[in-house]
Amino acid sequence: MRSSFLVKPLRGRKLWVWFAAIYLALLLVSHGIRRLQPDPWPAPPRLHSLTLSAAPGNGGPADIRYVDTRPGAVPDEPVVLLIHGSPAPASMVFD
Q1: What is the spatial distance between Cα 45 and Cα 43, in angstroms, rounded to a whole number?
Q2: Are 82 and 69 in contact (CB under 8 A)?
Q3: SS (H, E, C) the chain
Q4: How far apart are CA 23 and CA 28, in angstroms?
Q5: 62 within 8 A of 54, measured Cβ to Cβ
Q6: Does the predicted model carry a pTM greater than 0.70?
Q7: pLDDT per residue over 60-76, tens digit each?
């Protein structure tokens, strides 16, 4: 008995070519949308930002955004800077 489908199923290499083409098209659209977005995200008022130049051979500058938890502290007191590797937002730490 013959199949009643109008489209033949894709097999093997042809299927992978279609997956690759769709993936590349979506990747291109994603990069285009990302280029149209503003700076990574608008910082809330209590969040400060500074840009540090990178060491030679380590790429471009690094943006560090931080929350001053003691804005009224004496300037001569030592500063503790905690840098974490998690992409979690600061709102999970400081609320």
Answers
A1: 6
A2: no
A3: CCCCCCCCCCCHHHHHHHHHHHHHHHHHHHHHHHHHCCCCCCCCCCEEEEEECCCCCCCCCEEEEEECCCCCCCCCCCCCCCCCCCCCCHHHCCC
A4: 9
A5: yes
A6: no
A7: 777 777 787 777 778 78
Tokens of 65: 């955004």
- Sign, Cα dihedral of 75, 80, 83, 88: negative
Q: Among 52, 50, 43, which residue's Cα sits nearest to residue 91?
A: 43
Element (H, E) at 16: helix 12-36
